[in-house]
Write a structure and sequence with these properties.
- This protein has about 140 residues and is mainly alpha-helical.
- The chain has one domain (about 5-140).
- Helices cover about 50% and strands about 10% of the residues.
- It has helices spanning about 5-35, 95-105, 105-120, 125-140, and strands at about 50, 65, 70-75, 90-95.
- The strands form two sheets. It has a two-stranded antiparallel sheet. A two-stranded antiparallel ribbon has the order 3-4.
- The longest helix has about 35 residues, at about 5-35.
Length: about 140
């Protein structure tokens, strides 16, 4: 069993580590949002206004407004996000676009490829695998 002094020292180290990680994440988030310039990096939309009828229409006061405030990891996964937190792997996106990209990444593949080309970043592993599967399926269906 650890002595009370050891437990306190371990708790202090854990707390300091979490604070350091939070500061690193805040700095990365700030840089990514600055790069995005107020728009979703893949969808290209700025502030989205949702009206009472649920449409993106004009002429009334919006019920809700939101911008690209979420930091989305192109290569994600439990236990791997922190190691892969970088400008190359993170994008600013709206919550709905982020959810859609996670649910249907194949639809977003062309936008991710274009984004990577724009900044000179390599295509993330997750999307390289999707692209390879897509090409393989096209080859099978054409062959």
């Amino acid at each position: 069993m650890n002595s009370p002094k050891v437990k306190i020292a371990n708790q202090k180290r854990r707390r300091e580590k979490l604070q350091r990680q939070a500061a690193e994440m805040a700095e990365l988030r700030e840089k990514v949002l600055a790069r995005a310039g107020g728009k979703g990096e893949l969808c290209g939309l700025g502030v989205v206004r949702i009206y009472s009828d649920g449409c993106w229409s004009r002429g009334e006061v919006p019920k809700q407004e939101y911008g690209p405030s979420q930091l989305a990891h192109l290569n994600g996964g439990i236990g791997r996000r922190r190691q892969q937190q970088s400008m190359e792997n993170c994008i600013a996106e709206h919550a709905t676009c982020h959810s859609d990209m996670d649910a249907r990444p194949l639809i977003w593949l062309p936008l991710v490829k274009s984004w990577c080309a724009r900044y000179g970043y390599p295509l993330p592993e997750r999307f390289r695998i999707l692209e390879a599967k897509q090409l393989q399926q096209k080859g099978v269906s054409n062959g």
